[in-house]
Amino acid sequence: MLSLYETKLSSRLLLGSARYPSPAVLAESVRRSGTEVVTVSLRREMAGGKAGGAFFEMIRSLGVRILPNTAGCHTVAEAVLTARMAREVFRTNWIKLEVIGRHDNLQPDVFELVEAARTLCEEGFAVFPYTTDDLVVAERLLDVGCEVLMPWCAPIGSASGPRSLSALTAMRAAFPGIPLIVDAGIGRPSHATTVMELGYDAVLLNTAVAGAGDPPAMAEAFSRATMAGRQAFEAGMLEPRDVAVASTPIIGKGVFA
Amino acid sequence: MRLLVKGAGVAGLTAALELVRRGFAVEVAEKRSAVGLGASHYAGGMLAPYCEREVAEEAVLTLGIHAASWWEEALPGEVVRNGTLVVASGRDLPELNRFAARTRGYRRVNAEEIEALEPDLAGRFQHGLFFAEEAHLDPRRALNGLHEMLAARGVTFHLGSGGQPEEGLFSAVLDCTGPTAIATLPGLRGVRGEMLYLETPDICLSRPVRLLHPRHPIYIVPRGDGRFMIGATMIETEDEGPISARSLMELLNTAYAVHPAFGEARVVETGTGVRPAFADNLPCVVERPDGLAIAGMYRHGFLLAPAMAGQAAALLEQRLRPAGKEFNRATTG
Fold first, then answer.
1. Which residues contact A210 (CB under 8 A, 6 or more apart)?
2. In the prediction, which pLDDT does B333 show?
3. Which residues of chain A have pLDDT under 50?
4. B98 touches chain A (CB under 8 A)
5. How close A209 comes to chain B (CA, Å)?
6. Where residue B9 falls among pLDDT bands split at 50, 70, 90?
7. Yes or no, beta carbons of A43 and B235 under 8 Å apart
8. Is B235 on the interface with A (CB under 8 A)?
9. Residue B51 backbone dihedrals phi, psi, to 5 degrees
10. ipTM of the complex
11. Catalytic pick among A8, A50, A96, A253
12. B67-74 helix and B301-320 helix, angle to the nearest 10 degrees
């Protein structure tokens, strides 16, 4: 079972809530995915008063845990402010920390990220940092109090799948006891299976489902793909070889003349 | 038999016309001082059922497909049938392919064909989709036109907060109050939309142009006289406050990407409206104690109001004049 900040979860798929055709389609996608954690991005216009209430109440009514995020923030100050607002609005200390460094590929600014994570961990947040596959940055995030790491496998929304399997493999090997969630870049169920086979603990995705022709069906496909990858990892897979290995022994086989 | 339509936005005025056409005596009550000052004021006025299918359910296409003809018949000369041009930059080609996969009623156009359609976009885009059957209108002119025409056909308008009619005096009330109904209709929510008007003599467009972008898709609707409506954000909140700097930057940046001359344009207006929407983002004719409501027009007011007005008017006619001629049974969506 997956454990994130002492919360036990049976689903290893986390879903974003943006860009669905309608809240009804989002609700059906969440239901069919079996996900227990849904990320929600807070815009400044939504905080305070009744604003945004109906949409957030709908997500709450799905019976899932809400993971607010700081999408669109570029500095420590913005991210910390957004996290504090999210804590008030959603009444949770969970925060997906996103501090963007580049507009074109939405790459995390890892320097600002570590500083923001330090401040938020000190304030009692359970921080889920959206980071790169850089091992030194990962170390720093753990040093300042993060207990979960969320590396990208490709730029947000690119749907291009894991770009560097060796980097993801190295990260898994470097942090054996830390929950690692691949966040961003997954486009197809096979991408999710691939990173789960590497031993990643979960995947977080949004556009791959929200932008699909039939989002609820795609949500279910991702759920199965994630489970398949995890099950394969736990079952122990063969190492690839360059030469053929006959599945039936040849020596000792009967000869009929 | 007198009927009261509450709300003089696109839903209310189209419904009033459908009721007048069925021979009812209609009065329209509007809290604001003039017609069309609510969410309709910020509408794009695109009659684009094929493009909307990108994210909307099939019902939006089937309900919206006759909208252009309805508006043309009601207000001759107000509908421009020049289609819609959808473009994307080279790096966003996957967005264009995704859009194409979700829609129909288009043909793919290359750089020369884009230039032929919109000479001012020459050389700017290599790939596009042209939806020839689509149309657009100017929402503000259209609603003022409906107001004049309804008044000429004997509809009484009660505008402004004073002098609202006594609802009990009417045979039925049709609630078309848009976002105001969010407070009383279960399941209805508000989706904030921000837009702006640019004015420049340096660009001429003949039809709505949509620029696809993974994060900030926009549409530009030409209003004539060098004015362009740029829209629109979609934010899950009922906040009606002024446009945010971020949204303004995103809309302007993307307009600039369509044509750099928009950088020299004047920002003559910015606005924020709240779209009323149900969870499936589809409009619905809803039962009310004193009649019906047309609710949840979302971002499809001008596209779907004619069909919803027809449904509501047919239902009221069936109830109030059951012995009349035969009617097609309307669905309540």
1. A16, A18, A19, A20, A26, A29
2. 41
3. none
4. yes
5. 13
6. very high
7. yes
8. yes
9. -65, -40
10. 0.76
11. A96
12. 80
In A148-253, which ranges are E strands? 150-151, 181-183, 202-205
Report yes or no: B90 at the A interface, CB cutoff 8 Å.
Answer: no
Q: DSSP string spanning A3-20? A: EETTEEES--EEEE-SS-
Q: How far apart are CA A40 and CA A30, in angstroms?
A: 13
Rounded Cα distance, B51 and B94, in Å? 16
- State which amino acid sits at residue B253: N
Q: How far is B189 from chain A (nearest CA, A)?
A: 6
Residues from chain A that touch B237, judged by Cβ atoms under 8 A, are 43, 45-46, 51-52, 55
Q: Does A51 touch chain B (CB under 8 A)?
A: yes
Compute the nearest-CA separation of B93 from chain A (Å).
Answer: 12
Contacts of B56 in chain A (CB under 8 A): 21
State the average pLDDT for chain B: 92
Q: Taking the mean position of all CA atoms in its chain, how far away is CA B4?
A: 23
Exposed / middle / buried, residue B213 (Cβ in 10 Å: 0-12, 13-18, 19+): middle
Residue B280 clears pLDDT 60, i.e. is over it: yes
Nearest to B214 among A46, A58, A157 (CB): A157
Of all residues in chain B, the percent with pLDDT exceeding 70 is: 97
Angle (CA) B56 B300 B198, round 5°? 115
Q: Give the pairing of strands B189-199 and B227-231.
A: antiparallel
B275 touches chain A (CB under 8 A): no
CA of B17: how far to CAs of A5, B55, B161, in Å? 60, 30, 23
Query: Averaged over B18-31, what is the pLDDT?
Result: 95
pTM of the model: 0.84
The pair of three-digit structure tokens given for residue B246, joined into one six-digit string: 């971020």
What's residue A156's pLDDT?
81
What tokens appear for A6 in the block?
Answer: 């002492």
d(CA A119, CA A42): 19
**What three-state secondary structure class fits A60?**
helix
Q: Is A43 part of the contact surface with chain B (CB cutoff 8 Å)?
A: yes
Look at residues B82, B79, B55, B64 and name the one whose alpha carbon lies nearest to residue B212: B55
The predicted pLDDT at position B194 comes to 95
Query: CB–CB of B189 and A27 under 8 A?
Result: no
Q: Helix, strand, or coil here: A203?
A: strand
Active site includes A96?
Answer: yes
Cβ contact A45–B101 (<8 Å): no
Residue range A49-107, pLDDT digits in tens = 555 577 888 888 889 999 999 988 899 999 999 999 999 888 899 999 999 998 878 88
- Helix/strand/coil (H/E/C) assignment for every residue in B19-85: HHHCCCEEEEEECCCCCCCCHHHHCCCEECHHHHCCCCCHHHHHHHCCHHHHHHHHCCCCCECCCEE
